[in-house]
Amino acid sequence: xxxQNRNLSNRQYVIIGVFAVVGLLYVIKLFSLQVLNKELKQxxxxxxxxxxxxxxxxxxxxxxxxxxxxxxxAVYDLMVVPGQxxxxxxxxxxxxxxxxxxSFVERLTKAKKYSRIKASAFLPQVSKEDYAHVxxxxxxxxxxxxxxxxxxxxxxxxxxxxxxxIGEVNHDEMAADPYYKMGDYVGKSGIEKFYEKELRGKKGxxxxxxxxxxxxxxxxxxxxxxxxxxPGKDLxxxxxAELQAYGERLMNGKIGSxxxxxxxxxxxxxxxTSPTYDPNLLVGRVRGANYNALLNDPSKPLINRAISGTxxxxxxxxxxNGLIALQSGSITPATQFHCNGPxxxxxxCTHFHGGAPDLAxxxxxxxxxxxxxxxxxxxxxxxxxxxxxxxxxxxxxxWNLGLGHPFETDIPYEKSGNIPTGAYYDKMYNGSWNSVTIxxxxxxxxxxxxxxxxxxxxxxxxxxxxxxxxxxLIRAFGDSTAIPEKMTTRLETGIESRHFKVIxxxxxxxxxxxxxxxxxxxxxxxxxxxxxxxxxxxxxxxxSIFIAFAPVEDPQIALSIIIENGGYGSTWAAPIASLMxxxxxxxxxxxxxxxxxxxxxxxNYDIKKKKQ
Amino acid sequence: MTDRNSIIGxxxxxxxxxxxxxxxxxxxxxxxxxxxxxxxxxxDMSQFCGKQMMWIGISLGVGFLVLLLDAKIYDAFAIWVxxxxxxxxxxxxxxxxxxxxxxxxxxxxxxxxLQPSEFAKLGTALAVASxxxxxxxDLSNRKTRLPVYALILLPAALVLLQHDAGSAIxxxxxxxxxxxxxxxxxxxxxxxxxxxxxxxxxxxxxxKTVMCIIIGSMFALTLAYYLLHKKKGLWRxxxxxxxxxxxxxxxxxxxxxxxxxxxxxxxxxILGMKDDPQGAGYNLHQSQIAxxxxxxxxxxxxxxxxxxxxxxxxxxxxxxxxxxxxxxxxKGTLFVILLYVGLLVRIIKMAERQKLAFSRIYGYAIAGxxxxxxxxxxxxxxxxxxxxxxxxxxxxxxxSSLLAFTVMLAIFVKQDANRLNIL
Lengths: 612, 423
Prior knowledge:
The complex is a heterodimer of chains A (612) and B (423).
Chain A: H1 2-36, H2 38-42, E1 48-54, E2 61-62, E3 68-80, H3 90-97, H4 101-114, E4 120-126, H5 128-137, E5 144-153, H6 160-163, E6 166-168, H7 171-176, E7 185-187, H8 190-194, H9 196-200, E8 204-210, E9 216-219, E10 235-237, H10 241-250, E11 256-262, E12 267-274, H11 287-296, H12 305-308, H13 318-327, H14 359-365, H15 368-379, H16 387-400, H17 422-428, H18 452-464, E13 467-468, E14 474-477, E15 491-492, H19 497-512, E16 529-535, E17 543-550, E18 557-563, H20 573-586, H21 592-600, H22 605-610
Chain B: H1 7-10, H2 13-33, H3 48-68, H4 72-95, E1 97-99, E2 102-107, E3 113-114, H5 116-132, H6 142-161, H7 165-170, H8 174-180, H9 186-205, H10 208-228, H11 234-258, H12 261-270, H13 282-293, H14 320-352, H15 357-381, H16 399-417
Antiparallel strand pairs in B: 1-2, 2-3
Helix pairs in contact in B: 2-3, 2-14, 3-16, 4-5, 4-6, 5-6, 5-15, 5-16, 8-9, 8-15, 9-11, 10-11, 13-14, 14-15, 15-16
């Protein structure tokens, strides 16, 4: 027993041996790394390694016809590594760069605060001339160097809100994604933001040795640590640049929006918000000043009204009520409701069409009492067993039509609009409400608020007779990878297509019927369906609204127009819609006088607002 | 009968001095590593070095307390410490919060977080020592072996479930204890493990066919030798070769199906199968540049340029050795390695002079744990071991790790100081 223990005790030497051998191995490896390896040692001789980021070219953006919308231009950033700045002639440096000594101190302090060791942009976007000039003498200023990067440029200067802009990353963005370093650019809005990951590509890195005289002595370790930048993907949008520019011209002098959709795909053809601005204003060193000017402009040009403006849809909502009434079996296309004109109760009619219209007639004449009755009949339909259940059904159907919620495709900052819940009315009326209480919903007034994008989608859904693709901007990526599945997923409304046929006929007679509210905006040679809307607006004159699609036989375009304080739908919105459709289908318009009247028409908002 | 005042005279000062030296090197390195964002006072509590100072204070206090307590309680309560730590590991699994891809923290609020896996090593060392130290324990008997295996494998499994493969590997260190305590075949297992690692690496680097030819020819030679010399144990030899043949075919499967992606990539990088200096190879390249740039003499304290957060990630925790390498140079790294080897050898020597089996076994257990930590951590920074995130004992930033290692060591120092009281 004793003997065995002594034998075991000898095992300590094996274990000590293992420790010693591993220790020795490590010392040998360290000796080779630290003493024998000359390459690694180079950087110990007063040299510094400079990690130069190789910026990839950001992806370009094209319209549906391959026309260039966004591309890149080279600019030069003056970078600084504060820890390497030593003994420089500050005054001379300021003179060369045309900055004040105060500004020099401020910039250097900011860079130091970020990091003493990491490079940050000292002076972004130096002009080509200054770059050439300063570059020659930069060796006298250790710690500074130039880095090339690119700026966005917008050759046709349209669709500013849709394309969006890029700007320097902020702290939150850097914290959320370690890919970004201070001074990097990131998409801030529009598709620049949504497709940031696709557009940005992948940064490369070049490690260079720099001597004490701020001279690059070549690639470190023969470029073993370097990586090449990967360019970003190009984007092909569904947008039609020409139609977009045309729409922006038509909206001149007016506040509002135009949204045009290709019904068969859900791709957005035109996405106009007015007033707009030249996207080139928000690029480069002028960005800050211009941004503030736009921000303080009382007409709020930075707001994209097509997605963040919410409006009562007015009479354009009547098709929705007609469709839900048909689908629930509450009315048939032949159902007639009596109209007493302006003497009708509880909602009067603004038109003098007389008699008892059927559904198609009621759309043509925009008969208020008809759609109030249709709405009432729907939510009171005995098959639901109570108005609250009837209302829930009605609300679910509007949801299916894409209303009251954002589509959440590739358009950031989209508003959801508002279709009130039954609970909301319970609270508001202490649980006691009926079809008269909420009668305004029958004619698209009251609490209902929709975005122009949702309105356009109603038109697209009617054009498709029962389904839609969520409206989106992307058409394809430059490298042919698939676009997100959500954009190509067909959504069903649950309303049968035969009901849409009735609605479509009514909308066609809005243009072609003898009482049609848009008969003045007929497009010779092209069939179209539409619906005017005149939305009551508590803050001033009524909004002029129109939704439409064309041609009726095979719809290629569906759209919504909103002209704030524009009065009747037939005054501004209908003619503009007809011109947009004609332009898209024909490529030109045959009604120069309508076109001229619309483009030159200015709504004087100062006067309109005073009426409040 | 213990005279509390004489504890200072009885402790093993060479061991403690080496411990203090390592803690101070760590603290200064953490201070230096944090210097990239401007100068701060070394005691600035908002900085890593300030927090580390607080933890050093706490660790020393708790360590001193350990020395004051009665030496016998550690053996007596070993199993309870073990049970509590296992429960904590379970709590972490259920309520733990995720950090660095491994769920291993318990958050007590107020910025105080504990990592039970650090204390699991201590608990296991105590439990194994207590169990094996019993008079009737005999590792050649299955009735002793199986409970010991269970004591070691349970925490390893719980830690592995937290996706903390690094800490789980540490439990392999108990093979040293088992070997010393006479587990039959423990030496052979260690050799087999070395062989298996070699086969694993070579199979990945070359190919199955090449490995089969090599092992096959080695087998033929050994077989001829055995037959010619009429050696005994022929069947055991055949079994070993069969194991390695089977292992060759398991390598691909294990590599591509059992390992997680990041683990596989780290192995590919260290074997040079994949060159990815911007991706998974980044840590390795950067830490080698940092250590290499130190040269023989080093750049001097606070003078390092590479070993700041920017270039070497996790600089103050798992990659703290880079700072030693860059600023201290080869003389610095040699000094630290000598300190560690000295510390380990001292622990083994002290363990051998213990009268109580508990104290001896415990000494071997902590030597093994420290050794595996040091070998993996330093091996990782100099490119000899794949990147595995475990701390460098006494040097790395981190309260749980420092406290656990300090208590671990203090218990042993107390046992040693008490050995003269044992009759």
